[in-house]
Amino acid sequence: MVHWPEQAIDGLGQSVVSPAVNRLSDPDPELGISVDATDIADMAGNSISPEGIGGDEAFRLFAEVIEPSCLAVDHPRFFSFIPAAPTRSSLLADLLLSSTRIYGGSWMEGAGAVYVENQVLRWIADLCGLPEAAGGVFVPGGTNGNLSSMIAARYAWRQRGAGRHDAVRGVIISSDSVHASVPQAARAMDCEMVCVPGDDAGRLCRETLQRVLRALGNDRDRVFAVVATAGTTNAGVIDDLDAAADAADDLGCWLHVDGAYGLAAVCSEQSRGLFAGVERADSLIVDPHKWLFGPFDSCALLYRDPAIARAAHTQRADYLEVLQSTDDQGTPGWNPSDYAHHLSRRPRGLPLWFSLASHGTTAYAEAIETTLAVAREGAELIRSASHLELLLEPDLTVLVFRRRGWTHANYVSWAREVMEEGTAVVLPTQWKGETALRMCIVNPDTTIGDIKVVVDRLL
Ligand SMILES: *Cc1c(COP(=O)(O)O)cnc(C)c1O
């Protein structure tokens, strides 16, 4: 019989749990550094052996080598990619979730967890104006959410075609600022993308969309989805969602709204109007691990008509049929597995539920408003700095700007320096074919002072 020497874990419990809780309440974490592969190899060595290194040594490696060589993406001056800003309560719930071994794939096995995940999905559906029947699932990220939506959209199109579309290569229409995960989904599904040029800010708008539709000719019948972005990753720009919905109506196809980052701002009444048209989506996504203050990895995926998604995604096998039976009330239990390209899953919506239930929806709206206000102040600061040039007015919380007189090499070496000295993480991006700097603010702890540190460091 295999005997895991788990008693060695008893003492380890305290050494693991106390630092975890300390890190949760650390108001001022180190930014950390990005370490070269050879340096990590020197520090961590090879830790896999027939005898094992023991829990204490594994924990030492974690605390002394692994964590310090990872960046703190929740640091108030981590401004790159889409940062994270999980609430302490969401992180505590994540600890709890991991230690309770809850399985979240089926109603039968995880009813309680699935129930509260669905409450959170309902909250998002209501904010977005989706109908009562809407529902979905939390998947690991926007990449999976977009893929799963496109699979459902193509399924619906093929069903509608009653055989006519079966051997036809489908087409997805989006703006050219669409997130990389959509063309990635198209490649995985062997579909084509038609990209609509954005306006000056990169926004999908009615006129160019109409022009592209007119030029489609016979390819019209191949379009199975229009994808609109509610907050582009590079610039935080919100597409004209109503125009996208009209286009989808015109084509008789699916509308997907990718709000992985930006759609979080529907929480606030002040910014909800920016998303007019989202209520017409057949599917939408928003990532709690981005701007809804939850931990990795989590994306809320919602469908207007979950039955289509279920038909497209349910895995069928003798050993799974038992999950498709009905519960005592005669209604089928909600199996999260059936609504995306996945099967086994942790109920990764639970940390957001815990935090949202604890703090209340008003606190969420206020946290969103705080970050929006800081981003607006930051835009003003950049606009008034003579050494900088703000490249577009922010719709949300992404600031894209130029340092006057700098070449690509200047940006790269500056970004490396400020990261290595532990000041901030602000990496260059491209804007209209030229190198620029980009700062994304999702952390309510980020102040205008933090932005000023960066502005001054660019002098
Ligand atoms: C981040 C992002 C994605 C991908 O989400 P992951 O959670 O990183 O997989 C998709 N779309 C948009 C607009 C994003 O910002």
Keyword list:
single chain, 459 residues, alpha/beta, four-stranded antiparallel β-sheet, binds pyridoxal-5'-phosphate
Instruction: Tell me the series of helices and strands, N- to C-terminal.
Output: HHHHHEHEHEHEHEHEHEHHHEEHEEH
Identify the bound ligands: pyridoxal-5'-phosphate
Helix fraction? 40-55%
Number of alpha- plus pi-helical segments:
16
**Main sheet makeup:** 7 strands, mixed
Average pLDDT across residues? 94
Oligomeric state of shown chains: single chain
The strand order across the widest sheet is: 1-7-6-5-4-2-3
Class per helix and strand makeup = alpha/beta
The Cα radius of gyration reads: 23 Å
Low-confidence stretches: none
Give the amount of beta strand, in percent. Answer: 5-15%
Number of E-type strands? 11
Distance between the termini: 67 Å
Shape verdict:
globular
Question: Could you explain how this protein is built, in words?
Answer:
This protein has 459 residues and is an alpha/beta fold. The protein contains 16 helices and eleven strands. It has helices at residues 7-24, 37-44, 55-66, 88-100, 107-128, 142-161, 181-189, 206-214, 241-251, 269-272, 288-291, 306-313, 350-359, 361-384, 408-420, 448-457; strands spanning 135-139, 171-175, 192-196, 223-229, 254-258, 283-286, 299-303, 388-390, 398-403, 428-431, 434-440. A seven-stranded mixed sheet has the order 1-7-6-5-4-2-3, sandwiched between helices. Helix 10 links the parallel strand 5 and strand 6. Helix 5 (107-128) packs across helix 13 (350-359), helix 6 packs across helix 7 (181-189) and helix 6 packs across helix 12. The mean pLDDT is 94. Bound molecules: pyridoxal-5'-phosphate. Residues 82, 141-143, 146, 179, 181, 229, 233, 258, 260-261, 287, 299 line the site of pyridoxal-5'-phosphate.
